[in-house]
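Justification of computing resources. Each target in the renewal requires a structure prediction run like the one illustrated here; the chain below, 86 residues long, is used simply to show the kind of job we budget for.
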Amino acid sequence: MMNVHALMNHVLVNCQVQNVLTKLMTKKMMEQEEMKKDKPRWKDLPFYERFARTCKRNGSADWMVEHIREHGKQKEEAKRNGCKEE
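Resulting structure tokens:
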């Protein structure tokens, strides 16, 4: 059977380990929150960007993904300038 001194030491070590783990978890959660703030929401992205990302995720070639992005940006610019591009 453990004596009182050994038991208190065991509890103290466990508390210290728990404190370190809590600090690490808190730091990790804060980093994840910081990353979330920098990323735009999927539904807020323009159609061409969502389409390009979906294509990339499904294995399309990089040049095709870039072509979709560029074409979408050009159409968006033309729309802003009042021109109708086809």
